[in-house]
Amino acid sequence: MEQAIQQIMTQYGVVGLAAAVVHQGHVIWSRGFGSADLERGVPVRAETMFRVASISKVLVGTAVMQQVEAGKLQLDDEISTHLGFEVRNPHHPRMPITIRHLLTHTGSLHEEQTPAAEQAYYRFLGVTRTTSEPPAIRELLVPDGAYYTSDLWAPWAVGEKFEYSNLGTGILATILERVSGERFDRYIRQHICEPLGMEATFNVHDLEDIDRISVLYNAEQEPSIDQFRGVKPEAVDLSGYRIGSNGMIFSPQGGLRASVLDLTKLLLAHQQGGGIPCAADRSADQSGRDMMAPTCTATAGGGTGTGVHGRLLKPETIVEMHEEQWRGYGVNGLYKQKGLHVHITEDLIAGERLYGHAGDAYGVLTGMYFSKEHDLGLAYCINGAHIEQGRAFNTVEEDVAQALYAHLLSKM
Predict the structure, then answer these.
(1) Where in this chain does the record put each Beta-lactamase-related domain (predicted)?
(2) In this structure, which of 53, 135, 245, 330 has its CB flanked by the most CB atoms within 10 Å?
(3) Which CATH architecture best describes the domain 2-62+198-411?
């Protein structure tokens, strides 16, 4: 396995890579390769944290569904009801936009498809992340808002087409704050990460050791983000922030810092019907040796493997998240089937129907996927690779996934 990964890294010029393999509720292999910080000579380990990009959306979807279970949201609620102001596509002003639309990228948001939309969206994001009193998301979404442009909206009707939207996840995070009364980063940490034993966070100031986070590199091996050099960035004073006004402060669409070991814990919770697996407390061995997590008493709906001790979501809620909500062709063929902030794919590993999510931002490629049929899963973070389009994913992802799958088959 190690030799196969090293060959892939050489072929694609990968700076750093971490990966983990799961089978029957256990992490059976995990390892880090290459560098997390070229300048300072820090190696990648299985515990190294990366900004995992759009895998973050799975946590947002999970949090939204927790609020559905709590009776504070319904999937077909109009988002305007929970935001406290009306949000409409100006090209189709009579059509309501629902929470389900945002979870399936069918809300007709269009924020990165025209120069005017991009300028408005990124100007809003820039101010949101750097000021002590970030603007309310209303300023981006309503016609009299300071950042509004009608170009944010596609010409087609709500629900008619798939258009990948990061802004939609920011709106969901804002709604999550409003119905829970908790700041987004704190909600995710308290209600998802801590119960699962994940050290992952949307707020880097939660981490005791900032060196846990890898620098992200582009294909030319130039730093793109998270070059902290051992020093936490100065925190923005958010004492004046009003919870529920702008959930995009901590980049819910892609700002989670997590290790592949963290991702396996989230993966197992989804694979085991929403249960919190007993394996959540057990870290894999950095040497790459097979690890078997301890067992505990299984509870209803826990699935196979380690059993569960509590749950994030009810089994029927997990089933609904994983059900196909949309089918088509999106993002150069990467997205052909979507659940509720869950990607369904048969393109990463031939013959395997997988559930999870991918990520691609600032030079890192990430993936967290599992098979229900064969009780297997994998997670990877690939940093600074040369990118080539494959069947649906990038070829380096397909090659890494195939190497991980081959290792898994050798253990079955």
Answers:
(1) 2-392
(2) 53
(3) 3-Layer(aba) Sandwich (3.40)
